[in-house]
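Run: sequence + adenosine-5'-triphosphate -> complex structure.
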Amino acid sequence: MTARITADWLHEPALQAVFDALETDGDTARVVGGAVRNTLLGLPATDIDISTTAEPSAVMEKAAAHGLKAVPTGFDHGTVTLVTRGTPYEVTSLREDVETHGRSATVRFGRSWQHDAERRDFTMNALYCDRHGIVYDPVGGLPDLQARHVRFIGDPRLRIAEDYLRILRFFRFHAQYGAGDLDAAGIAAVTELRDGLAGLSAERIGMEMRKLVSAPRAAETIQAMRDAGIVSRVLATHGGLRPFQDLRALDPLAPEACSPALALAVLSDGGEADLDDMADHLRLSNAERKRMKAARSASDIPRGWGEARPAPVSDTEIRRLLFLAGREAAIDGLLHAWANAGTGPEDPVFLPALERLREAEIPVFPLTGKDLLAAGVPAGPHVGEALARAQAAWIDSDFSLDRDALLAVATGA
Ligand code: ATP
Ligand code: MG
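>> structure
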């Protein structure tokens, strides 16, 4: 099977300049991995990685000779980042493994595209294309890609023992790009070797799980991981699978549902402490941790949604939620509540509420501490208390009390 890619990114002058620099003195260069895979699937390419027959020191020299900026980002394992017109391209010299121990491999640079392909993880990730878009497929990735079949290159057990992260990558790529059942030999191998996950760093696990939970087929994939005894080993939870399935079912209606923080919050079926456990376990950033918690607490804000349904959510409640949580957390909270309601995408209440949360103006509280000081409230804790009192009255009035009325509430006048 021969294939040829046409894509705008391939014809970017910046990328062609990288080819111009690398393809000198008998060396060749090809784009590899995600960019080729995604383009063949008709999906946007994220980062563009390049492989070349030139060794890292030669890559540096070629870049200098062509006026390209070269940063030795991973020189020892063969990676130099070339920056042209502000776009970074990771250029990695062809490698072959000599010896592997868990994560780190002893590599040497080689000139064989076949060997370079064989040390990658899945057949669909070992596709290359040259500067004209001609696709090279050393390990039979094209038919697998067409079938959306994530298949280990070589013997799955051996490949996993070289790097246990491949267990999670197997599920992650299925969730993103797979279809149908997971590869049977792959499932058998990941199940057998799952104890190896214990030796992985939390950062590496976190990076894969973030991508996995927000992928289109995440729900069925998490189910398969649970069947293989893997979820509890990587997530510090057994997984609130039904709400999570409902969340993923909202993807077509709500692109907002794809945030990894929201997905993880829904997947964690415990309280605040469990969210912290999950954030620790996956080394989430502070912003992600905050977003998970905000989604959880905003899902409780809409008063009476439980009892009042299927009555529509009132404008007052929409304003209240936006004011108390802010727009992002308000939408996350609504989606969290929707996923947990068990009523599915057709629910007549949540969709109109989501649309209003996206568009409605967020009320701005018209009073500040300065106003209170000017009105004679003594500086100190009284100011905060008086403001809180006024704010509560303002919310209760459906944000209708004006500044003078609020000042009166605050000062007890
Ligand atoms: P994404 O769109 O998520 O970036 P990607 O295919 O580019 O997908 P990366 O994690 O960026 O994935 O890795 C780039 C390429 O490097 C992969 O396509 C694969 O060929 C190879 N690779 C990355 N990690 C591993 C690994 N742990 N074991 C073997 N090969 C790997
Ligand atoms: Mg990539």
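>> summary
The mean pLDDT is 91. The first strand starts at residue 29 and ends at 32.
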